[in-house]
Design brief:
By secondary structure, the protein is mostly helical. The chain has eleven helices and no strands. Helix 5 runs antiparallel to helix 10. The N terminus is likely disordered.
């Protein structure tokens, strides 16, 4: 009887009273526990609630702290990797080493962000991470290897005009993601591979045509056609593979389709911001 009264005395809750099955007052009962174990439990309860809230895709940006890290490390990478590549052993020219090193660093950072989001959103599995990483890799190849090669070969365009043209296509990237998102939401779980391939081919065709129109406006259409012919089918193939990867990413996201869309938007925006710094670092 003495022990029972002592356990029920106000302000005298024991450790057992904070455990499941013990004394649990209404509200945030973990916050009312005055023992050290209760404090730990209260913090764990709040962390779980916060994680669950983010896992439902309610946040505007998935894993915002990792987005800040991606942006900060990305800026540092594009400033330091081109210089570091000069001292690394490489078979080709210095420029090629700079392109490859910066592209690799961008892929690693983007993949790290995708992995961090998957840790927060428990329903996103490894296959989703792999698909998102492939998409980020395709985008990095276009922006950090093919784009500087194209500018390096052009002679009738300034760096500012080239960067402006590169930023002008960002809304098109986002619009393409919107198209894929709508298609994924309509065919969730039953999206046939043939339909994905047709859409990827259409996006690749639109991308090549859009770049040609931009080259016409800048007066570099002939140089663009020469670079396209010299590269063969590299650009269309990269776009098709990247499009298929983002489709697979959205398809595997399941109920977290909106979160997958936001991750892809973050990758597009951050990589383009890194690309601007990168281009001025290389050619100014």
């Amino acid at each position: 009887m003495a022990e029972g009264k002592r356990d029920q005395a106000p302000g005298k809750h024991s450790i057992s009273s904070c455990r499941p099955g013990g004394f649990q007052p209404r509200g945030c009962y973990a916050l009312l526990c005055v023992t050290p174990w209760g404090v730990v439990r209260s913090r764990h309860t709040l962390w779980v609630a916060s994680t669950a809230d983010r896992s439902n895709g309610r946040g505007l940006v998935p894993a915002p702290e990792w987005v800040l890290g991606l942006a900060a490390l990305g800026s540092l990478a594009v400033m330091t990797l081109p210089e570091l590549a000069k001292s690394l052993p490489h078979p080709g020219q210095t420029r090629q080493a700079q392109y490859a090193a910066t592209c690799l660093g961008t892929v690693v950072l983007s993949s790290g962000y995708a992995w961090a989001v998957a840790r927060v959103h428990q329903q996103l599995d490894r296959s989703w991470v792999a698909s998102t990483c492939i998409y980020a890799t395709g985008l990095a190849i276009v922006k950090f290897i093919m784009s500087p090669i194209s500018f390096d070969k052009s002679s009738e365009i300034t760096l500012g005009e080239f960067v402006a043209a590169g930023l002008a296509v960002v809304p098109l990237y986002l619009a393409a993601l919107g198209v894929v998102y709508v298609s994924a939401s309509r065919q969730r779980g039953v999206w046939p591979s043939a339909s994905k391939l047709r859409l990827a081919g259409l996006l690749a065709l639109l991308a090549v045509a859009t770049r040609f129109l931009v080259a016409l406006v800048l007066g570099t259409a002939s140089e663009y056609l020469e670079s396209l012919a010299g590269a063969g089918l590299v650009l269309p193939v990269v776009i098709v593979v990247g499009s298929l990867a983002v489709m697979e990413s959205f398809d595997r996201a399941g109920p977290l389709l909106k979160a997958a869309l936001r991750v892809s938007v973050v990758i597009v925006v951050v990589q383009h911001a890194m690309w601007v710094v990168y281009m001025y670092r290389l050619f100014q």
